[in-house]
Amino acid sequence: MTSALYLEHYLDGLESLPSELQRNFKLMRDLDARAQNIMKTIDDKASEFMQILVKNKESLTEESRREKLKQIQDLFNKAKEYGDDKVQLAIQTYELVDKHIRRLDSDLARFEGEIQDKTLATRGKSEETVTKKGRKKSKDTKNLGKKKRSASSDDETHNNTTTGGQSTKNKKQKKNAEIEEGSQDGGHLTPHPSDVLDMPVDPNEPTYCLCHQVSYGEMIGCDNPECPIEWFHFACVGLTTKPKGKWFCPKCSQDRKKKSL
What we know:
By secondary structure, this protein is mainly α. It contains 6 helices and 2 strands.
């Protein structure tokens, strides 16, 4: 699945989130307003009750006193219910947002896993292609050496047949001439192609992309001048051709969206 499909699916899931958040926040605001009104009523009734106790303590019966206290207690219970409902709504709102965050983390992990799998597959194909080319070149070199040795043997046989009586001295002179010719070439042998394949990779070569590998194949640069990675392989970011206009990597695109919110 490409990054565009991941983004499209995630945005579809976020479509209903703003309306749900707005509804929860509106309910919490209403509950808070009701609780504040009740607390104001409690203050008024408590002040009234204290004034009655101070001025008309003898005229206030026990039953009336208990009734007024019960009214105040009922108001406190009602305010507490509004507060509990507000806390529950806040918890639901947090879990709603957290659910989308967990889904985003899961999609990012899956997307990174797919990128790594594609990178490993691409590296495996590249190494297989290089190995096949090296084997073919080695085989061609061996066949060429056999042909040269065969031609040399044929020439030597022909010379021995025609001359028939070359002395040991002439053979030594020929051998010395070959040695001198080798010394003039610097005494170095031509390296075998398989030796070239076995040469170690330069550890100082820079790495790029999300896969942290060296440069190979087609690559695209991020148009964000502050991008920490800068260059990316086409396969790792789900591209087959170079897009028109400016292009930003997944991390820079996400950062730009966060800034625009």
